[in-house]
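Thread: quick sanity check before group meeting

JM: Hey all, I'm pulling together slides for Thursday and realized we never actually wrote out the predicted structure for the chain we discussed last week. Dropping the sequence here so it's in one place. If anyone has concerns about the input, flag it before I start.
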Amino acid sequence: MSSAVPTPDPNSAAWSIYLDNQSFNLTGLDGTPTTITLPELNTFIYSMKTSCAIQGFVLGFGSMLFIVLVALTRGERRRQPIYLLNLASLFFICWRAVLDLIIFEGSYQGVGENLLGANLQFGPGTYTPSIMSNLGNPPLYATVLASLVLQVRVVFSAEPTTRRIVTLILSVAAIVLVAFETTFTVYSIIFQFTTLPNAPYWIYTVIRIYFIIFVGLTGVIFLYKLARAIRRRKRMHQPTNPLHILFIFSCQCLIVPSTL
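JM (edit): ok, ran it. Output follows.
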């Protein structure tokens, strides 16, 4: 049963809501009418604007961190694996942000292309930025996870047995996650050139949950070791103010984002 159309009234909230939720018909790929609603159109526009804003922030912040890391790291530290991996991960983050901004501003990101699938007028070369962005995902995950594994090794440097066990477990977990991401990337690239279905959504869900658990677990390990260091210094009556600040900031970086 269709709802009754309210009486046209420029000063009526009900009339404004009705206007804001109207629908209209367009011709679909198979020639049949396809109904598009204004909320669907608003959602598409909002998602594109939000994506551009996020990637713009990622590019700016990532570039700043890259420059700061290069400027403040001196001497022998520049040859350490953790430094090189962190630098590489920042590069891949900025690389992907630039390509994603190019994609979002592309001529193939219109309403018809996204809501109706009308994109066969574009040649394969049009999707080069998308392919390059996808190819950057596996090495991005690999560098980030490898850096975390090496940092955990440093945390357990005074406990050789524990360090070997934790390193082995985290290394296997990181390899599995990179394998999932590589599979998803291959699916995504093939999808753009063939009629095969896109990657199963469960793979993307597994990658997200897996990555969150991995980063959260390594973060908890860092916090645990830092808390023990603070407690040990208190027993030795040594100052702990910088460690307290680091501990609070680390907790905020783990807890606050999880509530958003």
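AS: nice. Strands lie at 23-27, 33-37. The chain has two domains: 23-126, 136-260.
JM: adding both to the slides.
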